[in-house]
What does this fold into?
Amino acid sequence: TTIIRMGENKRYPELLEGDIARASAKIDRQTRPVGLSEPELQSSGMRQDAREPIPVTAWIHHQVLWTEPQLVEAEAIAWTRDAVLVRWRSHYSVHPHHTWVWASAVTRKNG
It folds into this structure.
C-alpha cells in the first residue's frame, strides 16, 4: 500500500525532487559578502562620501560554504582613513551590494 500525503506530486514525484535539487544547488551557489565588522570600521577613521562614485576594483571576501576573496569591478562611494565603502553588482542579484573593506584591498581604475 502506498501512502500519499497531501500536497505530494502523485504522478511525477521525480519532477518535485528535481525542483528541490535545483533550488538547493542555487542556494549553495549564492555567496554572501563579508565586510568589516563595526569595531573595525569605527577604528578606521572619519567617513567621507564621494561626490561621484569612483570606479575601482576591490578584493571582497565572500562566504560560500567557506570565505573566499573575489576581485570585483566596483565603485568607491565613501571612505575613512583606512577603509572604503564599495558598491558593486553580482550576477546572482539584481540589487547592488555595499561592503566596507580595508583601503589596501581597493585599487582605483585608470581612465
The beta strands are 32-34, 48-63, 67-79, 83-88, 97-102, 106-108. The mean pLDDT is 82.
